[in-house]
């Protein structure tokens, strides 16, 4: 979800084989850079494979270009990585969220062969997509401050996964905020990234 100078990305923690729950601590959100995060809901083995492949390509980009990859560029990297396997695709539907060098929030999602869906408000993915769309459309508002965005994305996720038998068992939310300048002209400021775990129904 997009907020005012901030962006949030969240996932549930359930790892399961249809109705059989295998684990309830399986995170699906990873960091590409300090300002760019990506979620990989889907087949667990493909989640790990695609995560490692993307991290390798981000590191190669950083060495070759001598700069940090922008979230827009990273999204196209995700798309091309998935599209090159289009005849035997990875069963993941990535979500990308981050702040670019102009401190503008960016979010996007792709399908399993890399078709990008850019959005100005929110994107969803996974087995609870239909429920997430309904909740997000009801709760999201433009220009939400960071704390309100956290509350909105948390309520959206928790209420949606409670209505889906294949999702839930806890959640984790990443909130990426634009750095605040303490003194004019200071360049070595760091962005504020907050990770919070949420309790959810365990039945």
Automatic annotation (TrEMBL):
SUPFAM superfamilies: N-terminal nucleophile aminohydrolases (Ntn hydrolases) (SSF56235)
Tagged with keyword Cell membrane: no
Keywords: Cytoplasm, Nucleus, Proteasome
Subcellular location: Nucleus
CC terms in the record's Gene Ontology section: cytoplasm; nucleus; proteasome core complex, beta-subunit complex
UniProt keyword annotation of Cytoplasm present: yes
InterPro entries: Ntn_hydrolases_N, Proteasome_beta_3, Proteasome_sua/b, Proteasome_suB-type
Record-linked PROSITE patterns: PROTEASOME_BETA_2 (PS51476)
The name this protein goes by in its record: Proteasome subunit beta
Protein species of origin: Rhodotorula taiwanensis
Top-rank taxon: Eukaryota
Any single GO BP term: proteasome-mediated ubiquitin-dependent protein catabolic process
Subunit: The 26S proteasome consists of a 20S proteasome core and two 19S regulatory subunits. The 20S proteasome core is composed of 28 subunits that are arranged in four stacked rings, resulting in a barrel-shaped structure. The two end rings are each formed by seven alpha subunits, and the two central rings are each formed by seven beta subunits. The catalytic chamber with the active sites is on the inside of the barrel.
